[in-house]
Amino acid sequence: MKITVVGTGYVGLVTGACLSDVGIEVTCVDIDQKKIDNLKKGILPIYEPGLETIVEKNFAKGRLKFSTSLAESIQGSEATFIAVGTPPGEDGSADLKYVLAVAKEIGDNMNHHMVVVTKSTVPVGTAEKVRNELDNALTARGVNIDFDVASNPEFLKEGAAIDDFMKPDRIVVGVSSDKAKEIMDRLYRPFVLNGHPVIFMDIPSAEMTKYAANSMLATKISFMNDIANLCEVMGADVNLVRKGIGSDTRIGNKFIYPGIGYGGSCFPKDVQALIRTADQNGYNMRILKAVEEVNYAQKSVMFDKLLKHFGGDLKGKKIAMWGLSFKPNTDDMREAPALVLIDKIIDAGGTVTAYDPVAVEEAKHLIGDKITYADTEYAACEGADALLLVTEWAEFRVPDFDKLKSLLKAPVLFDGRNVYSPEAMKERGFTYFCIGIDTSK
């Protein structure tokens, strides 16, 4: 079986690599020549645990290829996945120009039946727009070639994407013909041997499923952050509250950890896009608008604590920051809380020296020399007035606290992910702040 994946970003590269790992012949296509050249050398554009090994292995065996030519790559493909970016527009709606441009190029070059699959996260109705682009391109060529359109949203967690793809909880596929269903069923058969299903449905339902899933998870996060802030005001311990509600099977213990807001490529963009889609169709998504509002405010909670501790004046203060990526095990900084915190600290007259295990290069690309970058977590703390933990990388869980105290001007730690025990930190002599617990007592 041969397929083509258009786009070598996070979704496209993981999809192509994992499909090739079960014996499918895959060509990943991108217009960026440098990115394609690097991939052929084993240099990946993203950090994802385990991905480099799979790419190198399958490229060496000839099952995974990289190209800048879509026209050549789709010849003989039974399915072509569109996995290009859908960045949010100024109004929050998903920008489909890249998706539709790919659809047109496929229509300009296809010469046999294939299933054109939207893998990118796209609003309900996008598949019909893709179908129209294909129809228009074929009509302009004066040819009549049968094709199908399908929707196959991804449910990959950054940092655990390989396991998510190879051992999925479920695979959602939207189709409108038996032929498309047969091809997609054959494609995914190797991945459901563990008993988890391929769930076939109509295309609009598949498109909506992705947005609904991410919006539900974002809602849990914002809800818990709201509860955490109230706990702090009322003198309750949010960690105990979380355990108490998480044991209820109707709620569960996932995505109810308090923190400094969600970020990344999915939740912010998808929540905004679903709100905008509803607005365009005359419906007010009141809960999701509140989710977004809470999340935006939550990214400033640690800064407010920092400012209050220093009496409202951060001028000349050096703040050490542990973590830049929006979550561990990725270098993704899109909508990362660290970006908001950095801007606020700098605007208030402070400076930031940051350390992150993998996201430093991405940070340099996004914000340049606005901050200083340290080679180690301890180097970031030398002479700092306080330490701010932003991303809960595993290597930050059990630091040398005595060494930290010797490096910091004063033992002040702001824990944005509730990694440490307030009682233990107090015993170690730290002034400690976290989320959802009043640690001033």
Task: Name its key features.
441 residues; alpha/beta; Rossmann fold; N-(1-d-carboxylethyl)-l-norvaline Dehydrogenase, domain 2; 3 domains; six-stranded parallel β-sheet; 17 helices; 14 strands; elongated
Shape assignment: elongated
> What is the helical fraction, as a range of percent?
40-55%
- The fourth-level CATH homologous superfamily of the largest domain is NAD(P)-binding Rossmann-like Domain
Q: Over the alpha carbons, how many angstroms does the gyration radius reach?
A: 24 Å
- CATH A-level architecture of the largest domain: 3-Layer(aba) Sandwich
Strand order of the largest sheet: 3-2-1-4-5-6
- Reading off the top of the CATH hierarchy, the class of the largest domain is best stated as Alpha Beta
The secondary structure category is alpha/beta
The biggest beta sheet, please? 6 strands, parallel
Q: How many domains in all?
A: 3
How many E strands?
14
- Helices, by number, come to 17
Q: Report mean pLDDT, rounded to a whole number.
A: 95
- Approximately how much beta-strand content do the residues carry? 5-15%
How would you describe this protein?
With 441 residues, the protein is an alpha/beta fold. The chain has 3 domains: 2-201, Rossmann fold (3-Layer(aba) Sandwich); 211-297, N-(1-d-carboxylethyl)-l-norvaline Dehydrogenase, domain 2 (Orthogonal Bundle), CATH 1.10.1040.10; 299-433, NAD(P)-binding Rossmann-like Domain (Rossmann fold). The protein is 43% helix and 13% strand. The chain has 17 helices and 14 strands. The protein has helices at 10-20, 33-40, 51-60, 70-73, 97-109, 126-141, 161-166, 178-188, 203-234, 238-246, 267-280, 286-298, 301-309, 337-347, 360-367, 401-407, 422-427, and strands at residues 2-6, 25-29, 64-67, 79-82, 115-118, 148-151, 171-174, 198-201, 318-322, 351-355, 372-373, 386-389, 412-415, 431-433. The protein has a 6-stranded parallel sheet, with helices on both faces. The protein has a 6-stranded parallel sheet with strand order 11-10-9-12-13-14. Strands 7-8 form a two-stranded parallel sheet. Strand 5 (115-118), helix 6 and strand 6 form a beta-alpha-beta unit. Helix 11 (267-280) packs antiparallel against helix 12 (286-298). 45% of the residues are buried. The mean pLDDT is 95.
